[in-house]
């Protein structure tokens, strides 16, 4: 094993700082996306709630739409896992695939996807 030199240690520190900064950028982008999804869920919940206030809204769909609104509100508040806890994952997976999205997300997938945007 070679003895570390000041140049080697400086290069390793520089690389570690670069990786740290890159990870910070990815975390910031992920938080931006989470915030956008929460805002979107809140917007859709408000639209559904306004629809529920219409007297012409069918009573047969009211309970389902109220449940959808509640799930969107929970998601907007940061409780998406709780909002969908009673749903079978196979249904959530099917809905995710129907939307054209992946059913899982890894760090490398996130980095690759960000590079394509």
N-to-C order of helices and strands: HHHHH
Instruction: Tell me, briefly, the overall form.
Output: elongated
Which range does the strand content fall in?
under 5%
How many strands, which pairing sense, and closed or not: the largest β-sheet? none
Using only CA atoms, what is the Rg?
22 Å
What is the terminal separation in angstroms? 43 Å
Q: List unreliable stretches of 5+ residues.
A: none
Q: What is the count of helical runs? A: 5
Instruction: Decide which structural class fits the backbone.
Output: mainly alpha
How many strand segments? 0
User: What's the helical proportion of residues?
Assistant: over 70%
Task: Using brief descriptors, characterize the structure shown.
0% strand; mainly alpha; 117 residues; elongated; 76% helix
Can you walk through the features of this model?
The chain has 117 residues and is an all-alpha fold. It has a domain at 6-86. The protein is 76% helix and 0% strand. The protein contains five helices and no strands. It has helices spanning 6-52, 59-76, 80-83, 89-98, 107-116. Helix 1 packs antiparallel against helix 2 (59-76). The chain is elongated. The model has no long low-confidence stretch (mean pLDDT 92).
